[in-house]
Amino acid sequence: MNLFSLKDKVAIVTGSLGLLGKEHCLALAEAGAHVVVSDLDDDKCREFALTLTPDALGAGADVTDAASVRSLLQKTEGRFGCIDILLNNAAVNEKFEDPLLALQMSQFEHFPLSQWRKMMDVNVTGVFLCSQIIGAAMAKAGKGSIINIASTYGVVAPDQSIYKTPDGRQAFYKSPAYPVSKGAVIAFTRFLAAYWGHCGLRVNALSPGGVENAQDDFFVKNYSAKTPLGRMAQPSDYRGAVVFLASDASSYMTGANLIVDGGWTAV
């Protein structure tokens, strides 16, 4: 079990305050890592860090801003001296201000360019910047693990039928932006794995399936019916995969996309 130990390892988690971000932080902390909690709100990052371990660091950062990411690197190195794990988790999904227009605006033909650009900026450029700035420091040290959070929708196309109500009405469409951004994350993971493999820095992707989080009952039922395990994921279902990819248990694994989806992409 020592293979899974992260004792005295330093881990930066972006998007730490989200549903899965908090779980990733908890998993790393429980495995022994010194966790750097990072998200947009610096105060909330500090508050959440206090709930992990006495030495956890809360450091707000905007992953789309290079200066902000450099500041995150400097704060982490100033406290801990190095970085062993970078978990690129920060991401956004489509969000429409007017729920009454969500059906129309989520259609491909009407999807707003502003939403497309925002999703690419956070979900793709954010991973690029954090890897370029923080990952470069890890590569220079000649060790470490970068974990990029992708999605099953980066592997297979969305099934629009699961967004239909029991009476057959389309409640919503999954837009092209999120799947495209997550497909890019998987491709970028392979690039980095090949680019930095010679210096001992491993880079892998983790593709989670859908997580149950107070969605409409019809959606949970539709999603679960398409999944061999018959349910959506619980937020804690990804803890083991995160620790595995961060630890020496996956020491000969790089450039891979670890899919943890209850079998969603298997059928």
Descriptive overview:
The protein has 267 residues and is α/β, with parallel strands linked by helices. It has a single domain, classed as 3-Layer(aba) Sandwich (Rossmann fold), CATH 3.40.50. The chain contains 8 helices and 7 strands, in the order βαβαβαβααβαβααβ. Helix 1 packs across helix 8 (239-246), helix 3 (66-80) runs parallel beside helix 5 (113-141) and helix 5 packs parallel to helix 6 (177-196).
> Which CATH top level class fits?
Alpha Beta
Sketch the topology as an H/E string, one letter per element: EHEHEHEHHEHEHHE
Q: Mind telling me the CATH superfamily name?
A: NAD(P)-binding Rossmann-like Domain
Q: Number of helical segments?
A: 8
Radius of gyration: 18 Å
Number of strands: 7
What is the name of the CATH architecture? 3-Layer(aba) Sandwich
Strand share of the residues? 5-15%
- CATH fold name, please? Rossmann fold
Helix content percent band: 40-55%
Main β-sheet description = 7 strands, parallel
Spans where pLDDT lies below 50 across 5 or more residues: none
| Strand order within the widest beta sheet | 3-2-1-4-5-6-7
Total number of distinct structural domains: 1
Averaged pLDDT, please?
A: 97
Shape: globular
Structural class: alpha/beta
End-to-end Cα distance: 33 Å
Quick rundown:
By secondary structure, the protein is an alpha/beta fold. The protein has a single domain, classed as NAD(P)-binding Rossmann-like Domain (Rossmann fold), CATH 3.40.50. Helix content is 40%, strand content 12%.
